[in-house]
Amino acid sequence: MGRIIALVNQKGGVGKSTTAVNLGAALGMLGKKVLVIDDDPQGNTTTGFGIEKSSIGASVYDVLMRQASLSDALRATEIEGLFLAPATIDLAGAEIELVSELSRETRLREALSPIAERYEYVLIDSPPSLGLLTINALVAATEAIIPVQAEFYALEGLSQLTRVVNRVREALNPPLHVSGVLVTMYDGRTRLAVEVLDELARYFPEQMFKTQIPRNVRLSEAPSFGKPVMLFDPKSRGAQAYMALARELLEPAKVHA
Predict the structure, then answer these.
(1) Residue 129's domain is classified under what CATH number?
(2) Which tens digit of pLDDT belongs to each residue from 178-205?
(3) Within a 10 A sphere around the Cβ of 202, how many other Cβ atoms?
């Protein structure tokens, strides 16, 4: 089985969906077999791959509610070997509907299990909360990557998030660990960004990626064209950063951080 990675942070706007789309695309372009699962009702990852939500049949909502298999929900992307399990706004209902269900925390793991061995990398985009959808992502994953914006409030809530990861590991998923902390929207010209980077390195000395994702207009523009940035503008700083991140993820040191 390959690596199953949940992208988690209860703060919104830190680049989880941007990372799911562009890291997935970069890994696919490096010849890896990749599955991206959109576990966020906002569906930004789905939009980022150019999937028209009105045309979606089975989605992650149907998978979690056991109305469809994960294979039924998969959609091909423009990149060979890269597939997407899309999300629609229906997924917001799963947070409520799953509360009274049996094995509510393990639905995504159960759905992924029959097909996980087909992929070298599975990336799960989670919503900006610590609710049942995020718990499902953490239970399904073997590792978590935390995208963190280079801003004043970056560390706020990280202790709570790591406590949740630890509780999930202890109760439901022993292999789970935080394998990487990714700094996004980074501008090395500002003192604040450098200070945030230093502070994060003190908290996560072993997990910090060497690659930082810069603030980049092309990264912001690409979703409106329904393309990963490396297809939209492969020479942009954003595209180059995510390709560097993908290569760093492939390094042996990042396999079991």
Answers:
(1) 3.40.50.300
(2) 999 999 999 888 888 888 888 888 888 8
(3) 9
